Amino acid sequence: MATNNNAFWGIVTAAAVGAVIGLLFAPDEGNNTRKKIKKKTNSLASDLIDALEKSKEKVSSAAGDIKDKGLKYKDEAVDTAEKYVDDANEEIEKYR
């Protein structure tokens, strides 16, 4: 998970730096360049928000799956423990 996160941030950073460098070296008036930077920044921010929302959905889904599995294992453990208690009680009753 950490590798995917690092790769994601590396791509976002590289895209932002590349866009800014490209705009700064483009032969255009300052006002137009600032507008382009603002537009590109807004676009990158929107892409970042979308990516974060998708990541949040994936994490939420994974957490739900883990919770469901944990509850299943807990129920199985309780059932097994109850069986052992019942078996032990039956053995005790044999000697009474």
Distance between the termini: 58 Å
**Uncertain parts:** none
Q: Main beta sheet, described?
A: none
Topology as H/E string?
HH
Instruction: Estimate nothing, just give the exact number of structural domains.
Output: 1
For this entry, what is the oligomeric state of its chains? single chain
The rough form would be described as rod-shaped
Compute the CA-based radius of gyration.
29 Å
Structural class: mainly alpha
Short description:
Helix content is 93%, strand content 0%. By secondary structure, it is mostly helical. The protein has one domain (2-94).
Structure description:
The chain is mostly helical. Helices cover 93% and strands 0% of the residues. Helix 1 packs antiparallel against helix 2.
SSE inventory with pairings:
Blueprint lengths: L1 H24 L4 H65 L2
Helix pairs in contact: 1-2
From the structure above, extract its key features.
mainly alpha; rod-shaped; 96 residues
